[in-house]
C-alpha cells in the first residue's frame, strides 16, 4: 500500500503540472491574440482611409435614352484601395501631346458612355431647339426650359478634339484657346467694337465693348470719375447683357466682383462661354418674365452697356427688378441708347423722336422708383437708389404708381414671376439710416457679421453661429490641403462652384487665392442664406439641382459638394446630379463631396461609371465621424478627330 500511495501522489503531481501548463499556454495564446488585434486596430486607425471598403449589393440602371444606355450590373463588388490620388493637371497649355485612350473601367459599376459630339456644348435648360416651343413674346422662349425626366441624357458630354486646359489667370483674361470654344462669329460681328479677335490657335480679348471700343479699363476709369470705385464700398456688381464680360473682367483688378449674364442665342454665339473660358464669373440668363435668380439688396452696382433691354416698357417691370436686387444707396449705370443720343443719332439709325421718347420713359420709371439722377457725362448716365423708403412712402401717397408690394418675399427668386410693384426696403427710424443695415467696406466685409444675421432677420442663424462657421471652414480648408495638395497651389483652380454654400464659409476661406466661387443656395435649402453671402461681398445664385445649371459644359475647375446628395435624396436621382457635375467640370477638374458614408459609397460607384478617379477619406473631425469625404478627379478625354470632322 505504501508503494501504491507513492504512485498515486506521483500521478497527481503530473496531473497538476499538466493542468498548470495548459492554463499557462491558454493565457499566453489569449495575450498573443489580444496583442495582434490591438496592433491591427491601431494600424487601421493610422492608415485612416476607407478606399478599400467592401460594397455589397446590386446596382441596376435603366435609361430611356436609346443612344446612351448604361451597363446593367448585378454582382457583388470588392473595390480596390486607391492611394496617392493625383489632382494635378496633365494637359496644360504648353503640352502638345493629347491622349484620348480610354482607361480600364472597374467591373460591377455604373458605366455611362460618351454622348454624341453634337452635345459638346449642350446646355439642357437653354436648348435652342426646345426653346422654339415657347412664347416669343417678351423673349420668354429664351428663359430656362428644362428637359423632362425621360429626356435627360445618360451619357458623358465630350470635350471638343484638341481641348486644352485654359490659360492661367490673369493671362486668361486676355486669351482663350480656339479649340475649347471653336466659334468665330463674334470675331466678325464685333470686330469694330474690339470684343474678340481670332489669332492662330487662340482668341484674344482686347477688352473692348459696344460702348467702350477703346477698352474696358478706360471706360471703368470714366465711371470711377463719377462714383468711388476705390474705397471698397462697391464690391458686388451685376452686368446685364454682358457680351464676353470684359467689364466684369477688368473690374476684378479693382476688387469688384461682377455677376455677368447674357442669353444664349445665335446672334451672340457663345458669349457667356467665352466669359467663363476667360476665368470671369458668368451665367446664361435673360431679363424677361421671371425674377433674376438673386436675393433682394444683393448688388452695390448694376450696369447695362447697350444691353438692348427695353427699360421703360412693360410698366417699368425690368427696372423694378433691378431695384429689387440693388442695395440701398446702390448705383445703376446705363450707357448706349438712348444716353447721349444726339451724338449717336446717325450711327444708331433711329429717329430723334424715338430716342428722345425712350429716354423720357426711363427717366420717368427711375423717378417713380424714388431714384435720383446722380450723374450724366458723355455716354454714361448714373442713377442712385435711396438709402431707405421714408420719403418714398410719403411721395407714394400722392402717386401710387408703382405701389409697394404687399405680402411678398423679396428674396424668393426661383421661377418667380416679375411684378410691377416696388419691393419695400426694411424699416428705419431716421432718414439718414441705411435700410437693412450698413455694410463694411471690402475686405472687412468678408468676415464682419452680415446685417441680415445681426438684425435677426435670417431665421435660425445667430452671430455666434456665423463666427463658428467662419472658423470651421478655415479649419476644413486646411484639412483639404493636406489631402489635395493642388489646393495649396495658387492658380491651380480658377472657376470654383460650391453647390450648397450655406453661409459662404468655403468661399471666404479661399478669398486670398486667385479664384472666384459661384456660391449656390439650393431652392430646397431649409434656410435661404444667399442674401447673407452677398452681404459678405461674395456672389452666387439659386439653383434646383434636380435641373441643369445655366452654364456651359466645362465651366468649373473645382466643385465643392457639402451634404448636397443627402439634401436631394428622394427628390431626384443621384446619378443625374453627378452627370450634371460631370458636364460642368473641366477635364482634370476636381470634386470634393462631404456627406454620409452610405451616400458616398453610392456616389463613388456612380463616379467610377463616369470614369472619375476617386478616393474615400475620413472627415476632418476624425475616423469616428459618420460623415466622410470623397475626392474625385475627372479624367482627360475628348471627342476623336474623326467625330469633330464629321460634325
Automatic annotation (TrEMBL):
SUPFAM superfamilies: S-adenosyl-L-methionine-dependent methyltransferases. The keyword Transferase applies. GO terms for molecular function: methyltransferase activity. It is a single-pass type II membrane protein. It is found in: Endoplasmic reticulum membrane; Membrane. Signal peptide: none annotated. Belongs to the methyltransferase superfamily. This is Methyltransferase. It comes from Papaver nudicaule (Iceland poppy). The lineage of its organism: Eukaryota, Viridiplantae, Streptophyta, Embryophyta, Tracheophyta.
Amino acid at each position: 500500500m505504501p508503494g501504491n500511495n507513492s504512485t498515486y501522489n506521483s500521478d497527481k503531481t503530473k496531473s497538476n503540472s499538466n493542468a498548470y501548463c495548459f492554463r499557462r499556454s491558454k493565457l499566453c495564446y489569449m495575450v498573443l491574440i489580444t496583442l495582434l488585434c490591438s496592433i491591427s486596430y491601431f494600424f487601421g486607425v493610422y492608415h485612416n482611409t476607407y478606399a478599400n471598403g467592401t460594397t455589397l449589393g446590386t446596382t441596376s440602371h435603366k435609361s430611356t435614352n436609346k443612344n446612351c444606355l448604361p451597363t446593367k450590373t448585378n454582382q457583388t463588388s470588392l473595390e480596390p484601395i486607391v492611394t496617392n490620388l493625383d489632382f494635378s493637371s496633365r494637359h496644360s497649355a504648353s503640352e502638345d501631346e493629347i491622349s484620348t485612350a480610354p482607361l480600364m473601367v472597374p467591373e460591377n459599376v455604373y458605366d455611362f458612355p460618351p454622348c454624341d459630339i453634337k452635345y459638346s456644348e449642350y446646355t439642357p435648360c437653354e436648348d435652342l431647339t426646345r426653346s422654339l416651343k415657347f412664347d416669343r413674346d417678351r423673349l420668354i422662349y429664351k428663359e430656362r426650359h428644362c428637359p423632362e425626366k425621360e429626356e435627360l441624357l445618360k451619357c458623358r458630354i465630350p470635350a471638343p478634339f484638341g481641348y486644352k486646359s485654359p490659360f492661367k489667370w490673369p493671362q486668361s483674361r486676355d486669351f482663350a484657346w480656339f479649340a475649347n470654344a471653336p466659334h468665330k462669329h463674334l470675331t466678325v460681328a464685333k470686330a469694330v467694337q474690339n470684343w474678340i479677335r481670332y489669332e492662330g490657335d487662340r482668341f484674344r480679348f482686347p477688352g473692348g465693348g459696344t460702348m467702350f471700343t477703346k477698352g474696358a479699363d478706360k471706360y471703368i476709369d470714366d465711371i470711377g470719375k463719377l462714383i468711388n470705385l476705390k474705397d471698397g464700398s462697391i464690391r458686388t456688381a451685376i452686368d446685364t447683357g454682358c457680351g464676353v464680360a470684359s467689364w466684369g473682367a477688368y473690374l476684378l483688378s479693382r476688387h469688384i466682383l461682377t455677376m455677368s449674364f447674357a442669353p444664349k442665342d445665335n446672334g451672340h454665339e457663345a458669349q457667356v462661354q467665352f466669359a467663363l473660358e476667360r476665368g470671369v464669373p458668368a451665367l446664361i440668363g435673360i431679363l424677361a418674365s421671371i425674377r433674376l435668380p438673386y436675393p433682394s439688396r444683393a448688388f452695390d452696382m448694376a450696369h447695362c452697356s447697350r444691353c438692348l433691354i427695353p427699360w421703360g416698357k412693360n410698366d417699368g417691370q425690368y427696372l423694378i427688378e433691378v431695384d429689387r436686387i440693388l442695395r440701398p444707396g446702390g448705383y445703376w449705370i446705363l450707357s448706349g441708347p438712348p444716353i447721349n443720343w444726339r451724338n449717336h443719332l446717325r450711327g444708331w439709325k433711329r429717329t430723334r423722336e424715338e430716342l428722345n421718347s425712350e429716354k423720357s420713359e426711363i427717366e420717368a420709371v427711375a423717378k417713380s422708383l424714388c431714384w435720383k439722377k446722380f450723374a450724366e457725362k458723355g455716354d454714361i448716365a448714373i442713377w442712385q437708389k435711396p438709402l431707405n423708403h421714408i420719403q418714398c412712402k410719403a411721395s407714394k401717397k400722392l402717386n401710387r404708381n408703382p405701389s409697394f408690394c404687399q405680402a411678398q418675399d423679396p428674396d424668393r427668386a426661383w421661377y418667380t414671376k416679375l411684378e410691377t410693384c416696388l419691393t419695400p426696403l426694411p424699416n428705419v427710424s431716421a432718414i439718414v439710416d441705411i435700410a437693412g443695415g450698413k455694410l463694411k467696406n471690402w475686405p472687412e466685409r468678408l468676415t464682419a457679421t452680415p446685417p441680415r444675421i445681426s438684425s435677426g432677420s435670417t431665421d435660425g442663424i445667430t452671430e455666434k453661429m456665423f463666427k463658428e462657421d467662419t472658423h470651421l471652414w478655415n479649419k476644413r480648408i486646411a484639412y483639404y490641403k493636406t489631402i489635395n495638395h493642388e489646393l495649396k497651389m495658387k492658380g491651380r483652380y480658377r472657376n470654383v462652384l460650391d453647390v450648397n454654400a450655406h453661409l459662404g464659409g468655403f468661399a471666404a476661406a479661399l478669398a486670398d487665392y486667385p479664384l472666384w466661387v459661384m456660391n449656390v443656395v439650393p431652392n430646397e435649402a431649409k434656410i435661404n442664406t444667399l442674401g447673407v453671402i452677398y452681404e459678405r461681398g461674395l456672389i452666387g445664385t439659386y439653383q434646383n439641382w434636380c435641373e441643369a445649371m445655366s452654364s456651359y459644359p466645362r465651366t468649373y475647375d473645382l466643385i465643392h459638394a457639402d451634404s448636397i446628395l443627402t439634401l436631394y435624396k428622394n427628390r431626384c436621382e443621384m446619378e443625374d446630379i453627378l452627370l450634371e457635375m460631370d458636364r460642368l467640370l473641366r477635364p482634370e477638374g476636381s470634386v470634393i463631396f462631404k456627406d454620409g458614408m452610405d451616400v458616398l459609397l453610392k456616389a463613388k460607384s456612380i463616379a467610377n461609371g463616369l470614369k472619375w478617379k476617386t478616393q474615400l477619406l475620413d472627415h476632418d473631425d476624425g475616423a469616428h465621424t459618420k460623415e466622410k469625404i470623397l475626392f474625385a478627379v475627372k479624367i482627360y478625354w475628348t471627342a476623336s478627330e474623326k467625330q469633330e470632322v464629321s460634325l
